């Protein structure tokens, strides 16, 4: 390692959005001397062939990552039907009694486009 | 009761994880042997991309039309980009050892870090530029797709990006070669001569069939750790199957009269390259080894002031 | 578009297009010689995109010339002799000493300054060209401006950071600035037909463009606390009049090396 130039090689993580409406997504990491430089290098290094609507760069050291031990805190038991629609499927039958359709996910998400009709 | 795992237990857990198809990440515990084989493999892969840009770079300013100039610029840019991805993966692996990209470059310059045999060779004509894109990239696609499911997550992700771009490279190479193969007699001769120059280096590209040929082989370790699945020879055979018929179909001749597919043995029979020569080449004694290393070293030293200048304000921040 | 039937209008359009095309073409060529040799890998990749964009812009201008019956774009970019080239001399100068394959000691400060100044001059011209009386050129200017935005941003970051770094970097940058300014008048010049180009409303005149350029540059220098003189010369020749250096001669020899072996062949 060269002590005079080592500071040039800072690690930055790059995130980008494909369209204005898309969520930020992790891309890859690059080396740059500072965040301004990281930002002007990001698109051409990782998104040369795809549309980009926005870019974030972040110093790698600013990210708190999980250790493998901490990752063991992630799994959950599969006993939480009550938080999912799965736990309420029986409503379909009930509504049928009243001659009503059940308002399921598909139906509810279709409402967003209704005003266009 | 909490009890610290012994290294042996860690090792057993580690092997269970990779055999279950789990991916290992940069900060995870890993056996030294695993870390070391990854560093060796990926740093060589990465630096080969960087050094591989040089023979083709020769042809960037010289490409014969605007479209070809743009195409080969984009292609060589990708090679640098692949080097970037792979060096980043390596840098995260060597970080716990207190090493950085600068150490990788030093290792290249002092001969500790080797680069692929093909990038030590001459590329004297435009036909070579096309052939590198077509067949060397073709060979690279075969070895790289073989590792897309590598147990090391960061490498597998980098390879996924790389292979996506290799598809463009292969087609870029094919476009140049087909134009020449369908062109004037002089153009046809250009491709044929390039095939003759590159045939042996291409065979060498996949590495020796077994450890006996050059003394050592990391084939077994990479297979054990689920980094790659096929052997050197299997990959070379795959290459023949995919490319020999194509080479012949456009009227080119392979400079090996013994080359044929043996139906009974179900494999291609071919003349072994000179593995002694291979050893010499990768020890930086190939025809262009020193010149290309010099180019890389000079550009590195020549721009040192830039890195030094921008390292300073950042340190203060 | 009736103007095209007027010989002077067409002559001025063609002249302007050659300047624009040759400028972008030769600078992209010089940039492409850097491939693999930039200060670090990430910059190498980014710089190559800028060179590709710039050569793409040249191809658009050559394409417009092709439509005007000047010949196909590969002939225009590869077969024209040195005295027919209309690029500014500054843009044909090598990146430093040595050859791109042998002992290249390329000068990053010169590259940053040349690109930074050129991108600013290109922006001023494109802004004016967006209102050009030659509509195809006005359309091209809108498209090209889109990509130039990134080029300017990229070179501005490099320019400012190396200037702010002080020490050897600043010394090299100041040296590069005076080198670039020595030949920058040529970049800003529109050559022998500049008066006609302005009166035909193809593009603003030399003076108006130069003034706009100074207005854009001065704040950059002010922010760096460096006096902006804005005094340019054309020390090495007048490219718009077909005057060029030996360096262009060599560049053309290299960039046409394969093409020349058989200009009629399909490559």
Provide key terms for this protein:
heterotrimer; A: 117 residues; alpha+beta; Ubiquitin-like (UB roll); 2 domains; three-stranded antiparallel β-sheet; 4 helices; 3 strands; elongated; B: 317 residues; mainly alpha; Ferritin; two-stranded antiparallel sheet; globular; Phenylacetate-CoA oxygenase subunit PaaI (chain C)
Describe the structure.
The complex is a heterotrimer of chains A (117), B (317) and C (267). Helix content of chain A is 25%, strand content 19%. The longest helix of chain A has 12 residues, at 35-46. Chain A has a three-stranded antiparallel beta sheet, with helices on one face. The mean pLDDT of chain A is 92. Chain A is α+β, with helices and mostly antiparallel strands. Helices cover 67% and strands 2% of the residues of chain B. Chain B has helices at residues 7-19, 32-57, 66-94, 101-109, 126-145, 153-181, 185-205, 211-214, 219-224, 232-249, 275-285, 289-302, 304-316, and strands spanning 260-262, 267-269. A two-stranded antiparallel ribbon of chain B has the order 1-2. With 267 residues, chain C is mainly alpha-helical. Chain C has one domain (2-261): Ferritin, core subunit, four-helix bundle (Ferritin, Up-down Bundle), CATH 1.20.1260. The relative contact order of chain C is 0.15. Classes of the chains: A alpha+beta (117), B mainly alpha (317), C mainly alpha (267). Chains in contact: A-B, A-C, B-C. Chain A: It comes from Jeotgalibacillus campisalis. Chain A: InterPro entries: PaaB (IPR009359), PaaB_sf (IPR038693).
